[in-house]
Amino acid sequence: MRLRRMPCWLAAVAALVLGGPNTLAVATERPIPVIIDTDIGDDIDDAFALGVALQDPRLQVIGITTAWGDTRTRTLLVRRFLTDVGRHDVTVAQGPATHSTITFTQKQWAEGATDMTPAPDAIDFIRDQVRARPGEITLIGLAPLTNIEALQQRDPGTLRKLKQVFLMAGSIYAGYLRNGAIPNPEPSAEYNVVSAPHGLAVLLESHVPVKLFPLDSTQIKLDEVDRDRLFAYGSPAADALTLLYHQWRLYNDWGQITPTLFDVIPVIALLQPSLCPLTNLRITVGEGGYTRPIPGTPNIAVCLTLDENGAHRSIMGSLAPAH
């Protein structure tokens, strides 16, 4: 027997009867269309960010674009991840390759992908999606902004047709934690910006609304207790993240065993803005990739403080909810 889709109005009534007014709000709220731009495969935080985004029904992940370094292998990694979690509805598009000196820690897992066909061009994909849905799509940027720079060169009008950009990048008043744990009151040249500083400058000049999540608010740790809970959870996403974590732990050059989930923060902030309140600032991309606040009309909204307990609850509630 062929099942017919329930009309929206009837679904809303059913939600109200069965689950009350809060359920009605969820049932009638449209998911947020997003494109995620990622350099997955070096550090482990990109994989966790994808895991959260793909698990949450409030997001419509219409595409994942790979950026920076070996974008072909990054594309294979994303394809395998999507296959493992059963998300065949998401397009994977490949950005221009660049030179990178960072170890691709999860390369072995990526090479286990079964789909080896050429991927669509990431720049064309972003352009076409944004022009088809002007003012609707949120770009979540988790990589050096080489794809943004290439998009601006290929089609200068596209960036301003985005609804907004959520970006993990920069360092305003705090830098990388010292020895992975000690607060650092001195700003750092953050990796995504120092790798492609012109990409951020281009984004700021485009006048698209940008929400920035710098080192000040993104250095949240996935401790051993949460790791054990995740690794034992047994879902397809948790199992994939477990394997990726162990490859990252074995092959990363910086000797870490506790991940810092930088790139997860823009995703959960999009879903739950109260976790990371925004401050309007004017920043400039200075020499050496520093993002410095300067006087003048604000050109960006920046999250400077994070509700870490709330963020942990949100991350674990998505990846390994309590039974």
| CATH class group of the largest domain | Alpha Beta
Structural class: alpha/beta
- Classify the fold: give the CATH topology of the largest domain: Inosine-uridine Nucleoside N-ribohydrolase, Chain A
Strand share of the residues? 5-15%
How many strands? 10
For the largest beta-sheet, the strand count, sense and barrel status come to: 8 strands, mixed
Domains (count): 2
pLDDT below 50 for ≥5 consecutive residues: which ranges?
Answer: 1-27
Q: What name goes with the CATH superfamily of the largest domain?
A: Ribonucleoside hydrolase-like
- How much helix, percentage-wise, in residues? 40-55%
Tell me the number of helical segments per DSSP (H or I, 4 or more residues long): 13
- Radius of gyration based on Cα positions: 19 Å
Architecture of the largest domain, CATH level 2? Alpha-Beta Complex
- The rough form would be described as globular
| Order of neighbouring strands in the sheet with most strands | 3-2-1-4-5-6-10-7
Whole-number mean pLDDT: 92
Distance between the termini: 33 Å
Helices and strands, in N-to-C order? HEHEHEHHEHEHHEHHHHEEEEH
